[in-house]
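Example 3.2
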Amino acid sequence: MDKILYNGRCDAMTLQKIVAEIETLESRWNKLLFIVGLATAEDKKLANALTIPYVNVSLLVSEKLQELPKANYPLKVGEVLNDHLSSYSAPILWLGNIEILFDKQLKQHPVRLLEQLSKRFNLIVSWPGEYKENTLIYATPEHPEYFKCRELEGKIIEV
């Protein structure tokens, strides 16, 4: 198998790993696969190469929430995502640009929100941080949106 992403970090072995995990998603309670280490452009290219619809979460959520009072944001994030994901007939969806989920105004636990959605939808999520010592990490400790999660449902593939 040739490299799908030229000048990217995803090689044939990583692609095979992703495809193998996709095939096992349906049998899990949480149908969730985190991909750690891809750049934004890489994840979209990879989703396209695998013919998986790509959802830009930050764009979607910010567009839908701008019409609402800020006090309603925490109540509506999950609903906005659920409604949008329901509009697809594809067996799996790729969520990228999830950075908005870490915004303190939204009062969300991004991993728990994604786990909840993955009970209904098969999801691949581009994690915008890193994976160290069995922990998903976003930002640095001094950053206001710093987040880490050790206990999670789903699989992780590092590239």
